[in-house]
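Input.
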Amino acid sequence: MHLDGFYKDWAAPTYKLIRILIIAFAFIMAFPYLPGSNSPAFQGVSVFLGILLSIGSSSAIANIVAGVVITYMRPFRVGDRVRIADTTGDVVEKNLLVTRVRSIKNVDVSIPNSMVLGSHIINYSTVAQKEGLILNTTITIGYDAPWRQVHELLKEAARRTDLINQDREPYVLQTALNDFYVSYELNAYTNSPNKMAIIYSGLHQNIQDCFNEAGMEIMSPHYSTLRDGNETTTPSDYRNKDYEIQGFRISKS
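Output.
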């Protein structure tokens, strides 16, 4: 049986909630028929236990209510890469009391549901499989570098990177014209949000390689030192080589 608008991951919590309500209703209906239920002692003990539970479980009740709300909000599912407040990782468990997130360092963080509900939640996996998650990184290059060549170098770095979607063309945005350099933002698609750290590392390595091969310095965020003005920061392994990409060719002597 399938109900429109009722998601599969709602089935288990809905069953548990209905079961709790039925048990509570049955207990309320049966309470007057319990032996001694009308005696002052029995009623006094019942009131005392009720006060203890209400005072001692206020935070637990808040987490349970928040857990129910989160379940039906569906901000994330088990296995999603999320960021909750300052914690980033994969959701490994969610229940009525806590949500457990495993960070990229294999650290399990248990976050009370009331805190989850009160924090902003970033889900990197929601549309990653269908539309692709856009990863972005920014570098700054001096004004003497042709901006069209910078765009092509950044795109080439994205094409060389593993787990970057090769079916969708990366693109570059020039986000700022600063005093000494231009800020370029590279945007590339991936369908593997759970491996963001590895992808970013590979992307940054390839950016370095592409710009070193072209003999172009990356001034990120600003290069300031005392040096011979004729010297370059490009590693010697990349010097005295010809480099060509997308119609741009640089010949080294």
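The chain has two domains: 8-123, 133-250.
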